[in-house]
Amino acid sequence: MWVASAAAVLLICMLIWKPWAEQDIFKQFADTQMPVVDERGQPSDSLLKKVSTAFNEKNYFAAVPVFEQLLKTDSSASTLFYYSIAILQTGNTNKAREELQKIYNGNSIYKYDAAFYLALSYVKDKNNEKAKEWLNRIPSGSPVYEKATQLKNKL
Fold first, then answer.
1. Predicted TM-score (pTM) of this structure
2. Rounded to whole angstroms, how far apart are CA atoms 112 and 106?
């Protein structure tokens, strides 16, 4: 009887504490796809195609060096944004935050997407207060507002 009671208390504590929840939240919200762009007149193995394929296959460690090579000739906001996500997915949160901060501070269409991924970087580090700060910077009219609200409710 005593063993069964202890097991029940342990099970209830685990369900309340949920040590696995933080990582699950990150995985649930961090998944994204990079648009595959076939450039006219470019060989089928162009850098853009290589990087989008690696990124969409979640092979972020392979995508990062290709992004770095691509950024030498294409410093567009979209390239920088997906590069930042790839860096975040490899675990280099500080570098990802630096790059995402650049996007957020600019006038890119990815400004609030960057804020969302900055929040996710803090979720990954289990710093929910800082994550909420970034989520609160996303205005209601932005395309990621609904997703940001869902994340905020989970935190």
1. 0.79
2. 11
Q: What is the pLDDT along the chain (155 residues), one digit of tens a residue?
A: 776 666 665 656 555 555 555 457 788 888 888 887 655 455 545 888 889 999 999 999 999 999 999 999 888 889 999 999 999 999 999 999 999 999 999 999 999 999 999 999 999 888 999 999 999 999 998 999 899 899 999 88
Distance CA 109, CA 33 (A): 17
| Helix 145-154 with 21-30: angle, nearest 10 deg | 170
Q: Which of 154, 121, 148, 153 is nearest to 136 (CA)?
A: 148
Distance CA 132, CA 77 (A): 24
Comparing CA positions, the residue from 12, 79, 4 lying closest to residue 39 is 79
Q: Do 143 and 112 touch, CB atoms closer than 8 A? A: yes
**DSSP secondary structure of 80-122:** HHHHHHHHHHTT-HHHHHHHHHHHHHTT-TTHHHHHHHHHHHH
As given in the structure block, the two tokens for residue 12 are 């209830």
Q: Give the chain's end-to-end CA distance (angstroms, integer).
A: 37
Give the span between the Cα atoms of 62 and 109, in whole angstroms.
26
